[in-house]
């Protein structure tokens, strides 16, 4: 462990309609402290001085919930790959470094305050079709419904999407295709997802378009920044699902 001092250049914005600006704070921390804990230290100092603490989203701090939506030094979730902001430690930064911290930047994710954005749009997409709504009876015996290992693995990989929104923040078009493709894929690959398969793809893509997300131009920035390594192959699957749904129409 080494003690370090960093300059946090943080986006401060009093409310959704207020104009924001960067403000730089110097904070002493150490390399074994997490990035969010460093923000906690800074907030304690601000409160002691009678200043407004910095508002930022977080919950589990274990890489599970997808709440910690910070754009750090030009990357959603910061410089680490395959990790969320809450899994980022200060050993990634140098003593004396200036670290720029911004909220997700997307028309579909308006800033609520400081570093916190409204990701309700993701919930609305989920509500459009990210579920199974028919009665599938009681719990199945593990062997009663055979699922191939390949399909089970792919579905599980897709289901590991935590809905953080880093894919949208990373995309120059603000596209939500990686998120939607993961949510559609996890059902399309399993027997339980078949009954509503076409309706789900159609409804979730329609809702995504209505909510102001941009179009996908296959730059791959989403998958490169995704903390759960959701594969671009899910986007190819979503395109196939959507075309098949349209043919059924
Ligand atoms: S696809 Fe990845 S980056 Fe996008 S919401 Fe899911 S976990 Fe986050
Ligand atoms: S706080 Fe839950 S994933 Fe980071």
Briefly say what this structure is.
The protein has 249 residues and is of the alpha+beta class.
How would you portray this structure in words?
The structure is a single chain. By secondary structure, the protein is α+β, with helices and mostly antiparallel strands. It folds into two domains: 3-112, Ubiquitin-like (UB roll) (Roll); 120-248, Fumarate Reductase Iron-sulfur Protein, Chain B, domain 2 (Orthogonal Bundle). The chain is 35% helix and 14% strand. The chain has helices spanning 35-48, 120-129, 149-159, 166-170, 177-188, 197-210, 221-225, 233-248; strands at residues 3-12, 21-30, 71-72, 75-76, 98-102, 111-113, 116-117. Helix 2 packs antiparallel against helix 6 (197-210). The longest helix has 16 residues, at 233-248. It is elongated. It starts with a strand and ends with a helix. Iron/sulfur cluster is lined by residues 161-167, 178-179, 182, 226-228, 230.
